[in-house]
């Protein structure tokens, strides 16, 4: 489960406040990274150009889902499964093909040159003009020779050795009984069902990534605002110390301490700004926004409404029963069951009906097309019976059963993991919801402590260290509140993701619908005036200014 890592913005303040003789730290440029050596030059990364485009949470999710490569890949898997279903059913339909051809015989073993010539003694040539007695006598004497003449006429005109031959044929086949083909269609449909659920899971994953990236960007930007408010408070305090120094009511050491406190905050602001820039870049990557396109996040990081903070009771087993990932795993189990049937079907015979119809023409020349074509038409019924294949089918059935058992175990593991994910997200959401109220109260108290401590310091009733510690406590309280909000909304997205059903309908997201966070600058003390702190003014009536302390 993804968790936002809180930034340690203000850990250096305590040591800086307690330092006594610390040299003045030069103010770094918050927009450039400087190399360690003294002769280094600032390295400024390229900044986005052009007008900033507004980007809401809903727009970022919609853009990611429409242009995400992961979603497109999942959809292509569904399209591939559809083609596999069509290919499986194609085996059950008639298969028809046609063939056209021309054959030119350049030399043939049946070509003997002059042909077969019978000797005169075997010739049978009766004279039809001879008298009847002579013709009868010729027949009686040469009757045996007539068989040789008939034999020669029997083979006359056969296609052997013909110079030109045109052929056209039409063949077809139809499966009558094929157990493996029938099981194959059920396997293809099971795979299609599984990849369809996987597409729903991929869409939900992309949605979760974009939502949590948006939360990280908002949190990072909020921490930048907190850092900037801390710098402004430290700058105002430094200005007051300089006024006190000119009035002779403060020492140079106190001014140096205030300067150190201010300069110690600047690296933290640079770090927070860098984290915010990286978070926005990550959001751009997920939403497929060009790098050079500046964006403005329009969905605010607000306090959750009371309805979102209310405790909900969710049954992990019931809420995850229709989870797309579990249904996909169940579909995989069904595919493995069909694989076992497929291997068992190899023991059964297959029956197919085939036919072939063709005509052949032997013209005297290539373009003559004379003569009558010869027709050939056959129909056959074939039965294929497997007898023995070296026990290969038995091994394939055993292998399919093992794969079925593995698929069932993987499904059970996934069910347990999803139920645990729901329980973890639900408990984390409850924990973050309980922390939000406490953190908000702590922020209010820390802001009041800082204002009172600052007023007491102006009247000489508090030390500079107490002011620094109060500022540190206020900044830490604000950071804790922002982190609690981030944890709550992250757990909210995790919970919504863990109970996503097979339809992929997203759960309502409460961020941006509650009260906005207080501006960090609102808790700052009043800006210093030209009046030296701790001195009397003509309107004071000769009495010190009252304080809340």
Automatic annotation (TrEMBL):
Any Pfam family: OEP
Compartment(s) of residence: Cell outer membrane
InterPro entries membership: OMP_efflux (IPR003423), TolC-like (IPR051906)
The entry's keywords: Cell outer membrane, Coiled coil, Membrane, Signal, Transmembrane, Transmembrane beta strand, Transport
Gene3D superfamilies: Outer membrane efflux proteins (OEP)
Signal peptide boundaries: 1-19
Highest rank taxon of the organism: Bacteria
Ranges of compositional bias, category Low complexity: 533-549
SUPFAM superfamilies, per database record: Outer membrane efflux proteins (OEP)
Polar residues bias locations: 500-513
UniProt region (Disordered), positions on chain: 500-549
Coiled-coil stretches: 388-435
PANTHER family, alphabetized: OUTER MEMBRANE PROTEIN TOLC (PTHR30026:SF20)
Family: Belongs to the outer membrane factor (OMF) (TC 1.B.17) family.
Protein name as catalogued: TolC family protein
